[in-house]
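[User] At your convenience, examine this fold.
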Amino acid sequence: MPPSRRAAAHALRAAPLALGAFFLGCSVRGLLYPAPPVAVPSPAPAPLQEVRLEVPGHEPVVAWGGDSPSPAAPVVLFFHGNGENLETMRQAGLFEDVGDLGVAFLAVDYPGYGRSGGEPSEEANLAAAEAALRWVRERHPGRRVAVFGWSLGAAVGIQLAARRPDEVDGLVMVSPWSSLAEVARVHFPAWLVGMALRERYDSRAAAARVRCPVLVVHGEHDSIIPAAQGRDLAAALGRRGRFLPVGGAGHNDILGVPAVWREVRGFLERLG
């Protein structure tokens, strides 16, 4: 076959692979960052307080916070799942659940979510997380800081704890993955994941740099992020990690299980 025809034939064979990788990349990104089309009001509905966080190198992001009755209680920095924003959390009663823990808290909308500027990405989300941690440390000096993340938020939380080991005193991860690539391979062919996935969110690698105590909570019937990944992550944390399997719970209903909040309360009380 002449060289030109060989090149053309190769291009025809490569085209479906390239298109597959392109569409997988779009699909994975859409699955990873499906910001809900629910408006986030301003100012925040009482008793919540709105906070505008300056993020170096990025557009500002918006967070909602609440105070605690005890000035000695820990402060919880909350990172939500990928299909939520501050208003959907409020409508679901999540801020009431967090407030019932007796702690001060700050919940952050990722870049591109709600009224936060920019676009979500691993780098942008982690920059926003670090800005939130700085704000919490400045606003609540001397208080213990616990990071609480669910699903995508757990991946953000463990990266923050790994980057700032001296500033994070405790970590709660609910429905975490061991790495983004591993959870993507649960839903997509491995070769396409390898071609199209650019972000890492490698929680297992971050675990080696985490110094604080960690509570890992996972629903045993989770079909989106298998419980085996949470168990693997807890094992990677060694004595710092405690794994709590939740029987009968899946991915989207786990924060509705009262036993989960009892465990979180106990964890925070021991931390304080």
Notes: The mean pLDDT is 88. The CA atoms of residues 161 and 234 lie 14 Å apart. DSSP finds ten helices and eight strands in the chain. The chain has one domain: 3-271.
